From TrEMBL:
InterPro entries: Ig-like_dom, Ig-like_dom_sf, Ig-like_fold, Ig_sub, Ig_V-set, Myelin_P0-rel. Residues 186-206 are annotated as: Disordered. Gene3D superfamilies: Immunoglobulins. It comes from Etheostoma spectabile. Keywords: Disulfide bond, Glycoprotein, Immunoglobulin domain, Membrane, Signal, Transmembrane, Transmembrane helix. GO terms for biological process: cell-cell adhesion. Residues 1-15 form the signal peptide. Belongs to the myelin P0 protein family. The lineage of its organism: Eukaryota, Metazoa, Chordata, Craniata, Vertebrata. Residues 187-206 have a biased composition (Basic and acidic residues). Residues 2-144 form the Ig-like domain. It is found in: Membrane. This is Ig-like domain-containing protein. It is a single-pass type I membrane protein.
Length: 206
């Protein structure tokens, strides 16, 4: 017990000395991704990656890296790099297929894969470093490239299209109703103005 107590006292003293000396205490970087995703072959897909840092965001120091690990393989290859500006790959299977879609100050490190292929099946790894906050878990997205959209995606698309058509129909009904109402009121107003004219008599006629 005396040894444990002495160790705690020494640890507290060291931590106090570090704080007094101005040594920064580095906290872990937190990264959030969308998990498992599906994309239809030949379409574009957004790989969403957001992060939280205990340190203020420094756009001149922050580093964002995306890498790719194919299915059933442990080897990783670079997909994208950001340091003050985007650096898409100049060669390899992702050349001219990766677009920066993030916002550093908005804590967004997302990218877009254009015209995905079946060879893009695998795990995409998002890593963010905001010095001195450089430690923490990486974010992972498992992408499955499929021939056609899943039933849930088709259902959502159908609902979106149906909702849009319904909104247009309702808008047209409102416009037509307003025009009819306006014409009816105008007709009633003209009728009220003509009625007194017909009832007037010639003062010379007895």
């Amino acid at each position: 017990m005396p040894c444990i107590l002495l160790f705690k006292v020494i640890s507290a003293a060291v931590a106090y000395d570090l704080n007094v000396a101005g040594v920064l205490q580095v906290s872990g970087m937190r990264i959030y991704t969308s998990g498992n995703m599906e994309a239809v072959n030949g379409t574009d897909v957004r790989l969403k990656c957001t992060f939280q840092s205990s340190s203020p965001i420094n756009p001149n120091a922050i580093i964002i890296s995306w890498s790719f690990r194919p299915l059933n393989l442990d080897q990783e290859e670079s997909v994208f790099h950001y340091q003050q500006k985007p650096y898409p790959p100049l060669e390899g299977p992702f050349r001219k297929r990766v677009v920066w879609a993030g916002d550093v100050m908005g804590r967004d490190a997302s990218i877009i894969l254009q015209q995905v292929k079946f060879t893009y099946n695998g795990t995409y790894i998002c890593q963010v470093k905001n010095p001195p906050d450089v430690h923490g878990m990486v974010g992972k997205i498992r992408l499955s490239v499929v021939t056609t959209a899943s039933f849930s995606e088709l259902l959502l698309l159908a609902l979106a299209i149906g909702g849009g058509i319904s909104a247009v129909v309702i808008l047209l009904i409102i416009i037509v109703s307003c025009r009819r109402c306006k014409k009816r009121r105008q007709g009633e107003r003209e009728g009220n103005e003509e009625a007194p004219r017909k009832e007037r008599k010639d003062p010379t006629v007895w």
